[in-house]
Every structure is written in structure tokens, then in C-alpha cells.
Write a structure and sequence with these properties.
Elements lengths: L2 H10 L8 H7 L3 E4 L7 E6 L2 E6 L5 H16 L5 E4 L11 H14 L2 H10 L5 H8 L3 H10 L5
Parallel strand pairs: 1-3
Antiparallel strand pairs: 2-3, 2-4
Amino acid sequence: MSTQAREILEKYWDKEIPIDPIKLANALGAEVKADPDLATSGEFNCTNDGPLIQYNNTESKVRQRFTIAHELGHFVLGHGGAYRDNPEEFSLANHDPLEIAANRFAAELLMPEAVINLLIFKKGIKDIAKLSSMLQVSQIAMQFRLKNLGLIS
């Protein structure tokens, strides 16, 4: 897990699942705003009032959650303040190192390894659909996370 995601979870997470990326962003001083007219999935900007994460709330709930976590990743990882992310930015085909890092951060924030291990090995939950539902992430995101953790091939 990235040091940044782990530190944020250790300091600000209330140990409830699903993890609330808006609460975490707010705890870090970022304002989070829904914008149904946003032409992208999400945006991160540094404003005079501080960091601002905007997300398109017409997209699915799991997309909104991942977008907020992804944009928070841009902020926490120090990528600067002018990110506008289209759905393509979240795909496996994206090779931009900053986008890959923000995606990894979001996955680690919303699906921490310790939580996944608890659900699978202590609670016996192995169904990807059920794990996805519990953590409110897409099944594709869950599959990718489980692969990255070496839990599935």
C-alpha cells in the first residue's frame, strides 16, 4: 500500500466500510462538490480557497466514489492543481504515470489490503460481486485490486 493512502486511513478513517472518500478529502482540507454539468468524471484544482475536488454526480455511485478518491490522489500525491479526468483516465489502457498513480492511490484508499484480507480470510467472503458491493466499488476495480494483491490470477 502506498505510504500516503495508509497514513490517511490510519489518521482519518473511522473504520467503517465502505470507506467514505468525501470525509477523508474533507479531513485533508479539500472541498468536494458534486456537479451534474461537469463535462468530465472529475476535476481537481487548487483554488484561492484551497483544494477543490469536483465530480460528476450523474455517473454511477461506484464511479463517483472512485473518481473522488482518484482526484484526492492527485492532491495528496502532489500532482499539481489542474486535473480533468475523463472515464478513459481510469482505464487499464492509460499509461500516464500520474494517472496510474492516482488510480493506485484510489484503489488502495477504497479497498485497503487489510480490509480485503479480513473479508476474505476471516469472514470467508470470496465472491467478487459481494466484496464489490460491501466496499461500494465496481467489480472490475475489485478484480484488478485482487490481482494486484496476488489473490487471484
